[in-house]
Amino acid sequence: MTTEKIKVSEIPDIIYKTLEALDPEKTLEEVGTIVQVSDGVVRIYGLTHAASNELLECDNGIKAVVMNLEEDNVGAVLLGPTDMVRENDVVKRTGRIASIMAGEGLLGRVINPLGEPIDGAGPITGTCVPMPLERKAPGVIFRQPVNVPMQTGIKAIDAMIPVGRGQRELIIGDRQTGKTSIAIDTIINQRRNFEEGNPVYCIYVAIGQKASTVASLVNTLREKGAMDYTIVVMATSSDPAAVQYFAPFAGAAVGEYFRDTGRHALVIYDDLSKQAVAYREVSLILHRPSGREAYPGDIFYLHSRLLERAAKIIEQDEVAAQMNDLPESLKDKVKGGGSLTALPIIETQAGDISAYIPTNVISITDGQIFLDTELFHQGNRPAINIGISVSRVGGNAQVKAMKKVAGTLKIDLAQYRELEAFTRFGGDMDPVTAQTIDKGRKNTRLLIQLPYHPMSTGEQIAILYCGTHGLLKDVPLHKISEFESGFLSTLRSIHAADVLAPLEKGEINKEIEKTIRETAASVARQFEE
Amino acid sequence: MNQGIISRRYASALWMYAQKNGQEDRVYVEVKRLCRGFSKYEALKRVLSNRMVPQEDKIEVITLVAGENVSHVFSNFIRLLFANKREKFLRIICLSFETIYLKENKILSANLVTAVPVEKDMERRFIQSLEKRTGYSIWLTTQVNPKIAGGYVIMVDTYRLDASVVTKLKRIEKSLLETAINF
Q1: With an 8 Å Cβ cutoff, is B169 touching chain A?
Q2: How far is CA A447 from CA A468, A475, A523, B128, B166, in A?
Q3: Model confidence at A10, in pLDDT bands (50, 70, 90)?
Q4: Is A392 one of the catalytic residues?
Q5: pLDDT above 70: percentage of residues in chain A
Q6: Which of A71, A90, A94 is the best mutation test for B, with the most CBs of B within 10 A?
Q7: Residue A45 has what DSSP assignment?
Q8: Is B95 on the interface with A (CB under 8 A)?
Q9: Do B34 and B87 share a domain, yes or no?
Q10: What are A155-187's pLDDT values in tens digits?
Q11: Looking at B103, B131, B158, which one is the last position of a domain?
Q12: Exposed e or buried b for every residue in A431-469, given b needs 16+ CB within 10 A?
């Protein structure tokens, strides 16, 4: 009987792993010795076969990633506290490149760029697959044009700077202009997709921010029910520079997991200016030659290779399965039709968009949403400067009804701004000019939206129809927001099925237009002076 | 960026200079002692990088660590290094020189760590087995470390085979934790 006693080491998983470990190739470790420790960077003698981006491990468990391969030593960045590593410590190769374990179990969690949970809710459960942090973007034959909208729920964006799934749209502006709010609104707006069973998984990457700021943001997302489909990757300002540098890559790797398994994902990098600063720090300690503003020469490549990973994947599964650089663990799960949309954020200094990093990222992305401090202080929130904001590919993804209704909005607003500049000098106005200015003012007021209150597409189209078709001419300027809530509540209670539902799908016809006109007229009557 | 290239060039030059003077074995011993000094005394690096310490004092410290009567080859080399202001690369140069010396002489250095002392016969058999497998001469050093609990850790050149009981226990602990999470 004693021979039948089951030992702890006889659990099948452990037996299998022990068998695997018996392979001499795997038990023989290549090791090196740390000869220099600087802030977050170590120089290791030995490790002659180490590869670029390979994950190394110290005997105390601290991980490092190979950055510099030199003649007989390697430079590596530490992914843990520097004070736990000392000179003469032994470092071993792991044979793996730096990866993050990605899976559905990450949803609703706050993790660090190594994939470890930091929200105190226990270990990550469920099946996870290793996704490399650095991976080549899909080639041209595995992509398809952006043609599905990514609704942000913000009227000004969805109407004039539409974003499509697979697009990279930069959010740029000074500090305290509402950049993060736009990103958070977009995440909250995906709740509807989640409820309809067609979720857009959101990944919010916080780089170099205060932990308290991220905590309150996670709280907001939780209150709005957005954490069900959201993952927060966090590298706070107190984390080592290398961890901050890797954070967006970790976010992209998690996003790619959803993208390559045929789902839709949205990744927000908040913000890439701080990542660039972290990368500069690492590069300077590694003695890499510095260029403009002391950034290393490959700072452009840093951002371009990250943002290029946002893509809309081709629908055909068999073509998608041939995708370049697919991780081995993902090969049997690949499906076509997925997408990864990126919303990188850049913080400018005193509105200077011609600085080094902003110009780089502007040229990489498919458009930018520029936020203006002046507009913000005037109360036009979101403070989007329509004049210099653009979406290069999103137009193809806009729903037809929105395109029809809001097509002239951008030009109307541009005309209004030009005419308004002249009226500042005083003098009489002809009726046409006065009407254009009145319409412009009301449209501008109509685009004001509270933070964390995204609006459905149907409602956006209906209210913008009123603005662009002059249905607000009898409503006083200060009553616009009241008109808006009255109009929308009427539509929701009486015309949800015959107006809002078709508009949501992008359909518009004469009958719907007639109903909108009638409803607007009846609501406007309450506000006539 | 060029730390590796610079140190490798100086190490190669030292090797050629030592070879020409027929002092490679002696220089190797001195370099080895200096390497050990760098590992043992953290202050040595600080002294070398301190601008307040006069150059002559730095050379004296290095000579002292490398052995009191160093060869003229080693002494000249150290003076050249200081003249070229490359003393901060000294440690990597020493490591590179060691690598070159061992490679040129077809030697592999090995280190065997055990929890209890190893018998001489066992050591001999171990060396023979390694020499047969690699075709290189083996320079074996042994070390007793009760912390590994049992088994052994063998390091040959830059490869390590960790068959210690403590590592096996750690692996089992990790596997159990992973299994528990997947349940």
Answers
A1: no
A2: 12, 16, 19, 83, 66
A3: low
A4: yes
A5: 94
A6: A71
A7: E
A8: yes
A9: yes
A10: 999 999 999 999 999 999 999 999 999 999 999
A11: B103
A12: eeeeebbebbebbbbbbbbebbebbbbbbbbbbbbbbbb
Looking at the complex, does the CB of residue B8 fall below 8 Å from at least one CB of chain A?
yes
What pLDDT digit, counting tens, does each position of B146-163 carry?
999 988 898 988 899 888
From B144, B143, B147, select the one nearest B165 (Cα to Cα).
B147
User: By the CB < 8 Å criterion, does A23 face chain B?
Assistant: no
List, for residues A214-266, the tens digit of each pLDDT value: 999 999 999 999 999 999 999 999 999 999 999 999 999 999 999 999 999 99
Decide: helix, strand or coil at residue B114: strand
Pick the CATH number of A402-525 from 3.40.47.10, 3.40.50.2300, 1.20.150.20, 3.10.450.50: 1.20.150.20
Task: Give the tens place of pLDDT for each residue, A96-152.
Answer: 999 999 999 999 999 999 999 999 999 999 999 999 999 999 999 999 999 999 999
Instruction: Look at A71-75, A303-307, A482-486 and tell me which has the smallest mean pLDDT.
Output: A71-75
Name the residue range of residue B144's domain.
106-181
Would an 8 Å CB–CB cutoff place B88 in contact with chain A?
Answer: no
Top CATH class, A101-398: alpha beta
CB contact under 8 A, B179 and A21: no
Measured between beta carbons, the chain A residues lying within 8 angstroms of B172 are 8-9, 14
CA distance A299 to chain B (A): 17
CA–CA dist A361, A328 (Å, integer) = 31
At A453, list the tokens.
């209150």
CA distances from A451 to A121, A150, A153, A331 (A): 28, 18, 11, 41
- The pLDDT of residue B182: 52
Q: Which position among A96, A288, A392, A492 bears the catalytic label? A: A392
Chosen for mutation from A73, A90, A94 (greatest number of chain B CBs closer than 10 Å) is A73
Q: Where in chain A is the domain with CATH 1.20.150.20?
A: 402-525
Quick one: closest CA in B to A14, which residue?
B175
Considering only CB atoms, which chain A residues are within 8 Å of B95?
Answer: 33, 35, 45, 72
Task: Judge whether A289 is closer than 8 Å to chain B, CB to CB.
Answer: yes
Total domain count for chain B?
Answer: 2
Region B36-58: mean pLDDT is: 90
**Which residue on chain A is closest to B43 by alpha carbon?**
A87
- Structure tokens that stand for A237 in this block: 């300002």
Does the distance separating the beta carbons of A14 and B176 come in below 8 Å? yes
Q: In chain A, where does the domain assigned CATH 2.40.30.20 lie?
A: 3-97
Residue in the block written with tokens 């993790």? A111
